[in-house]
Amino acid sequence: MKKNDTRATENVVPFKARDDRFPKAALDYIDTLLTVQRDRFDAEMACLTPTDFSDLPTRPTASLMVADTDKFIGAGWSSLGQRRDGTSFRWMGRVGTLMLPLNLEAELPFSIFGCGFTKRRFLKETTLWLDDMPVRFSLTRRGFNRWYMTGTLPKMAPRPYYILRLEAPALARLAEGVDAFFSLAVSEVRVNC
After folding, report:
1. DSSP sequence for 90-115
2. Is 40 in the same domain as 84?
3. Could you read off the pLDDT of 157-193 as tens digits, one per residue?
4. CA–CA dist 62, 50 (Å, integer)
5. What DSSP state is assigned to residue 13?
6. Are residues 73 and 166 in the same domain?
7. What domain of life is recorded for the organism (predicted)?
8. Is 56 a member of any domain?
9. Residue partners of 167: CB distance under 8 A and separation at least 6
């Protein structure tokens, strides 16, 4: 490390007291490694160019994702279940994600239909995100355990796909004696339909 190079110490929070367990040579070695790592990171970031998605193929502006179809692509979901009335659904863990290969160059209305929850408060405290942006929605309950969310997905910069993420505050046991923990049951997601 050069004597006039101060990058390794610019953003270091000082210790309250020097720890005698670490010899000075070890601390100098760690500082050197961190400086090299920062240099490599800066070099890689300088080489990156912003991705231009203006030449994407035409993407749809509407989508219907039912729990038992191939369009229900995401993570955090259980295997397919079916209610007595024939409604298919998937239980969600604490976080459930869905891939939306849509054109969001304009705001689009959406609806999420559900047919169960393990605790009522999980439904009330669930948050919805599009990529890393919070999405506002209204929640309506219908009957004993059916519910739906409606709202508007915000306008986003062009990308091949977006991630819609539902986050519940916690998990609960599905039923007494069953070793499965879930939060909400989702049957379908509609965007601009």
Report:
1. EEEEEEEEEEE----SS-EEEEEEEE
2. no
3. 888 889 999 999 888 887 777 777 888 999 999 999 8
4. 28
5. P
6. yes
7. Bacteria
8. no
9. 94, 95, 126, 127, 128, 129
Cα(72)–Cα(155) distance, integer angstroms: 22
User: d(Cα 140, Cα 122) in Å, to the nearest integer?
Assistant: 14
Instruction: Note the pLDDT tens digit of each residue in 56-98.
Output: 778 899 999 999 888 888 998 989 999 888 889 999 988 999 9
> In terms of residue numbers, what domain contains 164?
63-191
Q: Is the pTM of this model over 0.90?
A: no
- Locate tokens 């459930």: which residue? 96
Q: Are strands 162-167 and 63-66 parallel, antiparallel or unpaired?
A: unpaired
CB atoms < 10 A from the CB of 126, how many?
22
Confidence band for 41, pLDDT divided at 50, 70 and 90: confident
- Within-domain flag for 148: yes
Which stretches of the chain are DSSP H helices? 7-10, 24-47, 120-124
CATH number at residue 102: 2.60.120
Residue 49's Cβ-side half-sphere holds a number of Cα atoms within 13 Å equal to 2
